[in-house]
Each structure stands twice: as C-alpha cells, then as structure tokens.
Amino acid sequence: SAVAVVANMQAGSISIINLSTYAVSNIALPAGSRPHEVAISAQANKAVITTPMSNGLLILNLGTSTFTQVSTSTFNGMGPGAVAINGNTVYIANQMTASVTVADLVSGTVLKTFPVDPGPMALAVNTAKNQLLVLAEGTGTLDVVDLASYGILIRINAGDTERQGQ
User: Fold this and answer.
1) DSSP 8-state secondary structure symbol assigned to residue 127
2) Burial of 21 (0-12, 13-18, 19+ CB in 10 A)
3) For residue range 93-138, what is the model confidence (pLDDT) as tens digits?
4) Which of 59, 77, 141, 163 has its CA 20 to 30 A from that of 34?
C-alpha cells in the first residue's frame, strides 16, 4: 500500500503513514541523525532520508522497516541535504561543500561526489535528457548537470523572477 515518510528532525525519528488507513508507525534513528529530507522510490520500495548532521544518509527498506546507514564522507554540517532519486541512483546535495554525492540505492554505497556551484539547495532529475538540475543558492543559478559526464552544461540565472530585490 502507498505510504508517506516524514522526517522528524527534533525527535531523531521517521514516521511512516499508511495512506489507506492513516495508521502511523515511528522508527527511531541512530542518535544524532537529525533527519532532514526524504525521497521515495516506489520501484525499489525504499526511502532515502538525508542526515546532514551525520554527513550521510539512511536507506529505509519500506517492506521491513529496517535501514542502512551510508556515510558520504563529505562534510555537510548544517546543509539541508536535498535528495533526488532516479532509478537505483540517489543524488544528495552537499550545501557546505558545493557538491553532489551519487549513491547506489541497492548496495548502499557512494559512487562518486562531483562539484556544483555553491549552496546547492534543491535537486531534480530530468530523465528524458539524463540531466540533474541543481538550484545553487550561492550563485542564484540553476545548474544543468550532464549525468553522463557529471559536468555542468549550462547555468541558468534563477534570480530573474525575483521581486523588490529579494
């Protein structure tokens, strides 16, 4: 059945909500996890929860309610840890180090980390073009990353729609 996964940052837990019955089950996470953002892969029946304070992520098996802790070995400290999933590939934004970590959803291993413009805050995958869109707060740009080479193809000015100088 369909579920929603909610990160409870203060409590250091996640809540799984059954969207048919609205029953809620809570899962405690390792001490200091401070979960932040969640992405779900219905195909893999897994959720990815970012834990920026522990410089990593958790892969939750939604069938068994068990999780695997993955270290990105990339300092992310106070960053939000935006996350996007494409197939079995996970992308995590590292706000503090101006980079994106690529991990494998099945094996729970980090494949690589590549540089982007400063302050990556949000991620989205354009599967049709095999691109990752990275909203970089530090430069006010939307980086379009080619997922074959992990190079930035173009930087789009994301500040043109601002109003009153904000």
Assistant:
1) G
2) exposed
3) 998 889 999 999 999 999 999 999 999 999 999 999 999 999 999 8
4) 141
